[in-house]
Design brief:
Strand order of the largest sheet: 3-6-2-1-9-13-14-12
Organism: Pseudoalteromonas holothuriae
Cofactor: a metal cation
CATH architecture of the largest domain: 3-Layer(aba) Sandwich
EC number: 2.7.2.4, 1.1.1.3
Largest sheet: 8 strands, mixed
Distance between the termini: 43 Å
CATH topology of the largest domain: Carbamate kinase
Bound molecules: nicotinamide-adenine-dinucleotide, L-homoserine
Subunit structure: Homotetramer.
Strand content: 15-25%
InterPro entries: AceGlu_kinase-like_sf, AK-HD, Asp/Glu/Uridylate_kinase, Asp/hSer_DH_NAD-bd, AsparK_Bifunc_asparK/hSer_DH, Aspartate_kinase_CS, Bifunc_Aspkin/hSer_DH, HDH_cat
Length: about 775
């Protein structure tokens, strides 16, 4: 079973209550085999650093005071969490360790990293024992036995083996963060945010499926939420943007934390241990999240120009000063942004190769998609000018723009920048399934139509799905070059992958447009609804599924506040569903629906004059894109039966297909077998049709295929689709080939019915009808 690594930072473990809260999280979120990585409790590392400094300064009194402070804090935690024997044992272990520290200090043999390691060792031990006390099989582990470095480089193969050997039992392992050892068994630390790094490293070594970083913030925000109340918490951001933010010094994630995940599928999330119910931020792989906008601020930085930088030099410097250093090149010159208090150390290392360009700078960087960055930079410059903020240095890169200023960017200015620059547009991700006759035309029309919708809503087509392959791009597919993108980037997929990828989309709204003729695809609707997708269907299968399934689908949509539009499933682009809905909204009661609801059958019956065989006309209708993929769905009357059922359900009737009588327009025997077999027997269809045609003529009538639904006084329903011989002068006899006609009677339209007539099939009108559904969905979401 896939393992998960959970990491709890110091703030999550700052008191006995916090340990108890963390233990509850572990009990509800972890299983045997998972790992929990812990930092030192509260400010323990800072106190240990002070202890080290007093040792170095030979401050004996200071040393013993700080040691006592540490002892009191740890003893307080132990006494609050344990009793009797476990308490005595933990206190005695603590006492022994403090005595060893005192002894080493006296002997002048203390080591900095080994001293700092105590913070994590104590938290792992306390949490491990506390979980055991609660009955959870847990064991604390010293990460120095798992992670070994040689000359500053982690020995990945060896570490992977150590993890496999030492973390093989079905218990929960509570592992120390931050620390490792070198090949001579000396303690080394993994640097700033080292525990996060330990967690992702461990996840890589044990092939975990996910890492959760539990912290005191709720996730990753568009800007500092303590300064800007309207900061947006993003449920998903992609790794590249998280990495860029980290390089720019944003404190939520460190660049190093992300590196062990680089070529893996391990999921990473940042979530609050103080608010377990809050939605976390997931850091997802490229393509699984669209680019977000951020403003990250800087304080007290120096800008230095460097002659030449060796490979890896910036990360070494960054390690030295325990802070991210942002590096960039502009006009052929290399620059570094250094926290002012560390500039001296950096310049010393770069000895003579660097000089300060600007000092004591404040400022911010806007991070956004490359398509937006130039426009955002111009807008930011204007806003700063309006706010009288002087820009001392400014740099635009592919995915960010940097503004270094004299004054601090206070909360008011930051709020203005955030309001103007960080998009809060409402967004809709569109997934289009089925690129056949109608689907291809729909995508063509999308170019123009999506551009129109963009004026009201941020609409992006993010996936094109055929039966075997799909093209998925969370940032949006370029509609003018989609065929090319399809050639280069489409992939085979399974339904599970499709649902998972749709679930990963971090858009405010999502819609799946089903232009397939596939029952199997409509079977996915409940899963799509579970992923919060609205639905638009040209496909009739879900609308005509068994009542129980259909009802449940409608309830599921209702519960999740989702919309389902299916304008084109009856009458192609004709607004029949609108007409029925409008009548009912105005208090009317519909009693009769009669007419011709099949474009194919309308065209066939109106076009047939005996000059060519009926089956050759069927093939022509197929070519024109009127028929279902298998035209027998039309000839059997099944397609029209489906349409009548959809209309019946629209007027509030609980019917199933079996409740609608059906008379086929072809011999029953031709329904079996493949389409090719049908073609070899097409003469049987011709003979059948000719006979019906002649019978109608003999009665001085014409042959049509019609449907009718009557709601009787008693409330009983009579519904039928089948062959009809109609008067030559009737409206149905004189339909333009391919047209549908709906004759609606209601309480208010009783003697003079409401009639709706027009093309009932065809690629263009149907595709346009689906666009109408998309338009109305956007209006409903606005
Ligand atoms: N043709 C019309 O005039 C018209 C009018 C109204 C409604 N419709 C409905 O629109 C739908 C499409 O009609 P069409 O004429 O374009 O049919 P089509 O057969 O030309 O196209 C359907 C496409 O869906 C694809 N497909 C099948 N299963 C799939 C799956 N599981 N996932 C993704 N794609 C899949 C097929 O490969 C095919 O390319 C049908 O449900 C039809 O009833 C058509
Ligand atoms: N085959 C269908 C397409 C529209 O649903 C028809 O001819 O009416």
């Amino acid at each position: 079973m896939a393992k998960v690594v959970h990491k709890f930072g110091g703030s999550s473990l700052s008191s006995a209550e916090r340990y108890q809260a963390v233990a509850q999280i572990v009990l509800s979120h972890c299983r045997a085999g998972d790992c929990v990585v812990v930092s030192a409790a509260g400010k323990t590392t800072n106190t240990l650093v002070k202890l080290w400094q007093s040792y170095q300064q030979d401050d004996i009194q200071g040393f013993s005071d700080i040691l006592l402070q540490l002892e009191n804090h740890q003893a307080e935690l132990i006494k609050a969490l344990f009793q009797a024997q476990p308490q005595r044992q933990l206190l005695s272990q603590l006492d022994t360790e403090l005595q060893v520290i005192t002894l080493h200090a006296k002997q002048k043999t203390l080591h900095e990293a080994a001293l700092l390691a105590h913070g994590e060792l104590w938290s792992a031990r306390i949490l491990g024992c506390y979980l055991t006390q609660l009955g959870f099989a847990a064991r604390h582990v010293d990460a120095r036995r798992l992670f070994t470095l040689h000359q500053g480089q982690l020995l990945h193969q060896q570490n992977k083996r150590s993890c496999a050997e030492q973390l093989s039992e079905r218990v929960l392992y509570v592992v120390t963060g931050f620390i490792a050892s070198d090949v001579a068994n000396n303690t080394v630390t993994l640097g700033r945010n080292g525990s996060d790094y330990s967690a992702t490293l461990l996840a890589n070594y044990i092939d975990a499926s996910a890492v959760s970083i539990w912290t005191d913030t709720q996730g990753v925000f568009s800007t500092d939420p303590r300064k800007v109340a309207s900061a947006i918490k993003y449920p998903k951001i992609c790794r590249a943007q998280a990495h860029l933010l980290a390089r720019l010094g944003n404190p939520v994630l460190h660049a190093k934390t992300l590196s062990p995940l680089k070529h893996t599928n391990i999921k990473l999330q940042v979530r609050s241990s103080f608010d377990v119910e809050a939605t976390p931020t997931e850091i997802v792989k490229e393509g699984y999240s669209k680019a977000k906008r951020f403003i990250t601020t800087f304080d007290d930085l120096d800008l230095i120009r460097v002659d030449a930088l060796a490979q890896g030099e910036v990360s070494e410097l960054s390690h030295l000063i325990q802070h991210s250093i942002h590096q960039f090149t502009t006009k052929g010159e290399a620059f570094l942004l250094i926290p002012a208090q560390s500039t001296h150390r950096v310049l010393k290392v770069l000895s003579g190769r660097a000089n300060i360009v600007e000092s004591a700078l404040q400022g911010f960087a806007i991070v956004a998609s490359s398509a937006d960055i130039a426009q955002l930079q111009t807008l930011a410059a204007q806003l700063l000018n309006e706010q009288n903020v002087v820009v001392r240095f400014n740099h635009q890169d592919k995915e960010y723009a940097l503004f270094l200023t004299d004054q601090a960017i206070d909360s008011d200015v930051l709020a203005i920048l955030h309001d103007q620059l960080v998009s809060k547009d409402r967004e809709l991700a569109v997934v289009i399934a089925g690129l056949g006759n109608v689907g291809e035309v729909f995508v063509q029309q999308c170019q123009h139509q999506v551009a129109r919708l963009q004026q009201q809503f941020d609409v992006k087509v993010v996936a094109l799905v055929r039966s075997k392959k799909m093209l998925f791009s969370a940032n949006g597919i370029a509609l003018n070059t989609w065929q090319q993108q399809w050639e280069n980037e489409s992939n085979t997929y399974s339904n599970e992958e499709l649902i998972e990828r749709i679930g990963e989309l971090d858009y405010e709204h999502k819609v799946v447009i089903d232009i397939t003729a596939s029952e199997a695809f409509s079977d996915l609707y409940p899963q799509l609804i579970n992923q919060d997708c609205h639905l638009i269907s040209a496909n009739k299968y879900a609308g005509t599924a068994q009542s129980a399934w259909y009802q449940q689908l409608c309830e599921q949509l209702f519960e999740r506040n989702l919309y389902w539009r299916y304008n084109t499933s009856v009458g192609a682009g004709l607004p029949i569903n609108f007409a029925l809905a409008d009548l009912q909204h105005s208090g009317d009661r519909i009693t009769h629906i009669d007419g011709v609801f099949s474009g194919t059958l309308s065209w066939l019956c109106s076009s047939f004059d005996g000059s060519q065989t009926f089956s050759s006309l069927v093939l022509e209708a197929q070519k024109m894109g009127y028929t279902e993929p298998d035209p027998r769905e039309d000839l059997s009357g099944r397609d029209m039966q489906r349409k009548l059922l959809i209309l019946a359900r629209d007027i509030g009737l609980t019917l199933d297909l079996a409740d609608i009588e059906l008379e086929p327009l072809m011999p029953q025997e031709l329904a079996q077998g493949s389409w090719d077999e049908f073609l070899t027997r097409r003469e049987e269809l011709d003979v059948f049709y000719e006979q019906q045609y002649q019978s109608a003529l003999a009665q001085e009538k014409v042959l049509r295929y019609t449907g009718s639904l009557h709601v009787l006084e008693s409330g009983k329903v009579k519904a039928k689709v089948g062959i009809a011989f109609v008067d030559k002068s009737s409206a149905i006899a004189n339909l333009t080939p391919g047209d549908n006609i709906f004759v609606i009677k209601s309480v208010w339209y009783e003697l003079n019915p409401l009639v709706l007539q027009g093309p009932g099939a065809g690629k263009e009108v149907t595709a346009a009808g689906i666009h109408s559904d998309l338009y109305w969905l956007v209006q409903m979401l606005k």
